[in-house]
Amino acid sequence: MGRLLILLLIVLLAVWLVRRATRRAEPPREAPAARTSEELVRCVQCGVLLPRAEARMAAGAIYCSEEHVRLGPSKDPR
Ligand SMILES: [Zn+2]
Question: How close is the Cα of 33 to the center of ligand 1, in Å?
């Protein structure tokens, strides 16, 4: 009976170690990418909202298109 209990504990420990190893390996790869692609950012030229993945970054500002990167930040104060 005692031996069976030790065997059960070893099996539980093995399962726990495998789960911990796989859990640590998978989510960090997916979570940050999903979060950044869903995040909405605003174009400093026209003020349109778009996903970060589709935005263009130039000189620390966010733009919706190459056209607005060329135009630069809007002069119109809002
Ligand atoms: Zn724009």
Answer: 23
The pTM is what?
0.49
Closest Cα to residue 56, out of 48, 65, 67?
65
Q: How far is the CA of 39 from the centre of ligand 1 (A)?
A: 16
Mean residue pLDDT of the chain comes to: 85
Q: What is the Å distance from ligand 1's center to 15 Cα? A: 52
Burial class, 64, CB count within 10 angstroms (exposed 0-12 / middle 13-18 / buried 19+): buried
Residue with the two structure tokens 């495998």: 18
What is the per-residue pLDDT for 37? 56
